[in-house]
Design brief:
Elements: H1 2-22, H2 29-52, H3 58-78, H4 86-110
Helix pairs in contact: 1-4, 2-3, 2-4
Length: 113
C-alpha cells in the first residue's frame, strides 16, 4: 500500500506543476470534473481492464475511452464551457495515464498472495 500512496503523491505533485505550467485554475467545478472523469476512466478501463485483467483488448479500450471523452466534451460544449484547448487535452492525457498506473498497481497490490 505504500507504493500506491507514493504513486498518488508523485502524481499530485506532477499535477500541480502541470497546472502551474499551463496556468489552469484546478479548483473550478469544470476542471475537477474533467480530471476526475479522466482519472477514473484510466483507472478502471486502462489500469484494471486492459493492463491487469486483460478483459478488454487495447484497441477496444481506446474506442471506449474516445467515446467517453468525446461525450464529456460534447456535454461541455452544450453547457458553453470551452475545454477543448491543447493544455486541457495534455492534462487529460496525463490524467488517463496516471489513473492507469494507479489502477494497475492497486489491483496488483490487492491480489498479491
Amino acid at each position: 500500500m505504500k507504493l500506491i500512496g507514493f504513486i498518488l503523491f508523485i502524481g499530485l505533485i506532477l499535477l500541480y506543476f502541470l497546472a502551474a505550467a499551463f496556468k489552469l485554475d484546478m479548483l473550478t467545478l469544470e476542471m475537477l470534473s474533467h480530471i476526475g472523469i479522466r482519472f477514473l476512466i484510466g483507472f478502471m478501463i486502462l489500469g484494471i481492464g486492459v493492463l491487469y485483467e486483460h478483459v478488454i483488448r487495447f484497441k477496444s479500450s481506446v474506442l471506449i475511452i474516445l467515446a467517453l471523452v468525446l461525450g464529456d466534451d460534447i456535454f461541455d460544449y452544450y453547457r458553453n464551457v470551452n475545454s477543448f484547448t491543447p493544455e486541457v487535452i495534455l492534462l487529460g492525457i496525463y490524467m488517463l495515464l496516471w489513473g492507469a498506473l494507479t489502477g494497475y498497481v492497486t489491483v496488483r497490490q490487492i491480489r498479491k498472495p
